[in-house]
Amino acid sequence: MKNRKLLMIPGPTPVLRSIQDEMGRETVAFGDRGFVSDFQCLLEDLKNMWSCDGMAFVIAASGSFAMEMALVNTLKREDSLLIVSNGFFGDRFVEIAEKKGYDFDVLSAPWGEVVGAQEVADQLKKKKYAAVTVTHVDTSTGAVAPVREIGEVLQGYSDIIYIVDGVCSVAGEPVDMKKDHINVLFSGSQKAFGVAPGLALLWADRKSIERRKSIGEVMEYYADYQKWAPVMADTGKYFATPAINMIWAMKKAVEVIKEEGLDNRYERHRRNATAMRAALEAMGFSLLAGESCRAVTLSNALYPEGIEDGAFREELERQGVQVAGGLGAYAGKMFRLGHMGNVDEHELAATVCAIEKTLKTLSPSYELGAGITAFLKKLCGE
Ligand SMILES: *Cc1c(COP(=O)(O)O)cnc(C)c1O
């Protein structure tokens, strides 16, 4: 009998049976009274849980669409944008900005490090920006940006809209629009929320909604806040058909989070990440992200001498665990392991064991047990 396949990539993450069941429900009309009220309920929860004083949008799309949506509802063509990039997904904002023809500048950090708040503060003194983007956790590196410190710097600039890409952080890494002074936050269903891919989530505070009104017509149709706003205010209205079953799944995922408690969920992510990092290091891997900026949602592990990427991931998959390869210059040099969302300790322990078996297969002199021992010791607070 083959091992059950564990999906340990940084999104999509494992989906709980209770959430899958929502996707399998009989589909109803988008005007169905029960659905309309479920959708409204979801939006209220999303706003409350992440302290949004404006509007939450839940739209059938992926995280990249939310990146585009955030920019096009914030900037006029002639506006300047400051992109804070710590890796592949930070650079995706550059691509969007180029395509849209915005004037933009980029502050970037070497992969595994993050741009600090002081660097942002220094840049803001040089030029007037309409918006700043920060990628909270760049999935290409596993590093977490100092979102709150940057938010505090931006407090001094009332004309700047602070946009945070929380696709690989929201519901795993602590983030709060009010405390972190964020104007636009967005995420996707398939990462720390533990839902299948298919929904873009975006929170726009009051200030960013005012900005949208002030920029007049935008070229985009599906991405325009103003097309969606009437629906998000009254979920019985129609603009484009909502992803009914996905919205139910998302609502269930939010119920799961409320049941656990957001703070408990953050603490669980922190504990699991600490244990997983200890295990990886004990097995001979080193972590790409610097010690001071390691995300709790995933770990990007550089291979020890003599372990080849293709052979490692193929053997690990045979053992029943799927991880992701490195991106950019790190392709072939590391693997990316998601430990966010609704993964539990059983799944994490099984993952560590499967990595050990894989190392043993590829390198017979490998001493079994180092990883799982380090994992358990951390988990048990030793
Ligand atoms: C995954 C990811 C995205 C892109 O999301 P898609 O759903 O793949 O379009 C954007 N930003 C970050 C930080 C991500 O991790």
Fill in the keyword field for this structure.
alpha/beta; seven-stranded mixed beta sheet; Aspartate Aminotransferase, domain 1; Aspartate Aminotransferase, domain 2; 2 domains; 382 residues; single chain
Number of DSSP helices?
A: 13
Cα radius of gyration in angstroms: 21 Å
Bound molecules: pyridoxal-5'-phosphate
**Shape verdict:** globular
Query: In which order are the strands of the major sheet placed?
Result: 2-10-9-8-5-3-4
CATH architecture of the largest domain: 3-Layer(aba) Sandwich
Averaged pLDDT? 97
- Integer tally of domains: 2
- Specify the CATH class of the largest domain: Alpha Beta
Low-confidence segments: none
Distance between the termini: 36 Å
Helix/strand order: EHHEHEHEHEEEHEEEHHHHEEHEEEHH
> How would a textbook summarize the main sheet?
7 strands, mixed
Find the structural class using helix and strand composition: alpha/beta
Percent range of helical residues: 40-55%
General description of the model:
- Helices cover 41% and strands 16% of the residues.
- It is of the alpha/beta class and 382 residues long.
- It has 2 domains: 6-12 and 261-379, Aspartate Aminotransferase, domain 1; 17-259, 3-Layer(aba) Sandwich (Aspartate Aminotransferase, domain 2), CATH 3.40.640.
- The strands form 4 sheets. Strands 2-10-9-8-5-3-4 form a 7-stranded mixed β-sheet, with helices on both faces. It has a 4-stranded antiparallel β-sheet with strand order 11-12-15-14, with helices on one face. It has a two-stranded parallel ribbon with strand order 1-13.
- Strand 14 (324-325) and strand 15 (334-338) form a beta hairpin.
- Bound molecules: pyridoxal-5'-phosphate.
